[in-house]
Design a protein that fits this description.
The chain is mainly beta. 2% of the residues lie in helices and 42% in strands. It is built from 2 helices and 36 strands. A hairpin with a 4-residue loop joins strand 13 and strand 14. The radius of gyration is 21 Å and the shape is globular.
Length: 421
């Protein structure tokens, strides 16, 4: 499973949690203190300390039904340390009443649950972009996905998709017709184990982050293998879990590797050049560079999935600044992943745990957002990679919904050309 999907703040309930009977033990030992809707997509939950008791872990469950029915598709939970006394539930539905309970588990996995409380989330904010179309759906046949993780666009608005679990690359035309794919599971040339990043270079070749094989691979656009770069390790030019990849207009390649907590720069032929500085913003011990994009004036934007922020560097790897913080409000993040820039230099970020895309000026000023949690058109489940066309249409790898969705500006702004349907 992709690194970033494991660290999202809000996760679907595990089978063991769903199976917990309504008659599980209740005790005054664990008591919710306060629950509060703190925005359209999240809620604040606090409880009395339980660290003096023999519990191994805590879970906070939230759903729209008081019985926490496994049939409730909105049911979600957040895990937290036994010593904590509060947390934020992210990725919730706007304008919705939620029931909340705290569940403590002993080392033998026996649950004890609190009584329940309720809160309401806020109304849905205005959507900066509108739903325009989609391709995919779950499956292994061509044109279907199992965890689309990254997207790359060419000048004709053909787009390539990295299919993480099917271990292949697929090409689609502007109309959404898939007519080319390559790759299979393996460790050989042209084979993949979790392709998670894509970038086109100026020669028209496609670079792929092959995450579990700890390398990046280069292909022609008809799928012919050119070369592999990197091996497993923590040294210069080595990888542990490469994910985001970008190529600048001079052909230099940038790779974000959360496994090594590093961003590295390579020549157009794959030769190692340098490793980026560690950022000054956030907790260095939690640094998890996941997505990377190159913007105007040579600045490089890196999403940090565990510090819930965006770091900005020069193209020589020198740290410049950080913006964003944990949360679900405008300009706040929960496990940000993909990042891309439009022709005006505005920055788009996949706010994966909050199930939305946020849009910023290049200085980090919040502009707008679109999407929220769900499975219908325009809704998102763990959005990952992004690509932006010249007409400002945004393509989103909707990882857990096994599809790619296209979003467009309002008709008065831009609505030219056809799209995937």
């Amino acid at each position: 499973m992709k690194f970033t999907t494991r660290i999202a703040a809000v996760l679907m309930l595990s089978a063991s949690a769903l199976a917990m009977s309504a008659g599980s033990a209740r005790s005054d030992v664990i008591q919710l203190r306060r629950v509060l809707g703190s925005g359209p997509f999240c809620g604040f939950v606090s409880w009395d300390p339980v660290s003096a008791h023999n519990f191994a872990r805590l879970e906070i469950h939230a759903g729209v039904f008081a019985d926490f029915s496994p049939a409730d598709s909105t049911l979600s939970y957040s895990t937290t340390a036994v010593g904590d006394t509060s947390t934020t539930l992210a990725g919730l539905l706007p304008d919705t009443r939620y029931w909340v309970r705290l569940v403590a588990y002993t080392p033998e996995n026996a649950p004890t649950q609190s009584s329940t409380l309720t809160f309401n989330t806020g109304p849905s904010p205005a959507q900066a972009l509108r739903y325009f179309g989609q391709v995919g759906g779950r499956g292994s046949i061509p044109g279907r996905f199992q965890g689309p993780a990254a997207i790359a666009l060419d000048q004709e608005r053909n787009y390539w998709v990295a299919d993480f679990k099917n271990n292949r690359i697929e090409k689609f035309t502007i109309s959404g017709y898939g007519f080319l794919y390559w790759g299979r599971t393996g460790t050989g040339n042209g084979e993949f184990q979790g392709p998670s990043g894509l970038a086109l270079d100026g020669r028209g070749n496609l670079w792929v982050s092959d995450s579990r094989n700890a390398r990046i691979q280069e292909f022609t656009l008809d799928g012919r293998w050119v070369r592999s770069v990197g091996v497993a390790g923590a040294g210069e030019g080595q990888f542990r879990l490469p994910e985001g990849i970008a190529v600048d207009n001079l052909g230099y390649i940038y790779v974000a590797d959360p496994g090594n907590r590093s961003v590295q720069k390579f020549s157009s032929a794959g030769g190692y050049i340098l490793k980026f500085d560690r950022p000054e913003g956030g907790d260095p011990g939690r640094y998890a560079p996941t997505g990377v994009a190159v913007g105007p004036a040579g600045f490089v934007y890196v999403t940090d999935a565990r510090n819930h922020c965006v770091h900005v560097y020069t193209n020589e790897g020198k740290y410049s600044r950080t913006w964003g913080s944990p949360g679900c409000g405008p300009g706040e993040f929960s496990g940000p992943t993909g990042v891309a820039l439009d022709l005006q230099g505005r920055v788009y970020v996949s706010d994966s745990g909050n199930q939305r895309i946020q849009k910023f000026e290049r200085n980090g000023e919040f502009v707008g957002q679109f999407g929220y949690r769900g499975r219908g058109p325009g809704l998102l489940q763990s959005p990952q990679g992004l690509a932006i066309a010249e007409n400002y249409h945004v393509y989103v790898a909707d990882f857990d919904n096994d599809r790619v969705q296209e979003f467009a500006p309002p008709p008065s702004t831009s609505d030219t050309g056809s799209t995937s349907r």
